[in-house]
Amino acid sequence: MRTDTAADASAAEGSQTTSRTNTALSAAMPGLPALDLSKTLDSQREQVEIYRQLLEILAHSEQASAAIFPELSKSLVAHIDTLSKLKEDLHGVFSRIRALKTHYQSEYPDAFDYVQSLHVKELDDEDDG
User: Which of 45, 52, 47 lies closest to 13 in space, CA to CA?
Assistant: First the structure.
């Protein structure tokens, strides 16, 4: 944060710079009216200050992200590993279900066909409702 004296010194420096700039422009372009660039320069200084503050915010955000990235990476790897294990487990469960289904279909074909027809009727009733 700037103190009031620093702000006053900066404002005085800015007005000196503005007068020098206006004089230089008048000398460089004779015949043209003197341009008052003080508002433009003040606006640009304000924008530069905003950009500096934004840069500080972005730098802080980047530091915070860099600090938590390793922990989140480890967590992500653990979650991916868990999902892979779940996929393998589900694959095994469905393989056993298919094997049992095939076994019961060959051992009890009449009962199996009857249960399958009930299941098809239930699905048709759900589609109608």
Answer: 45
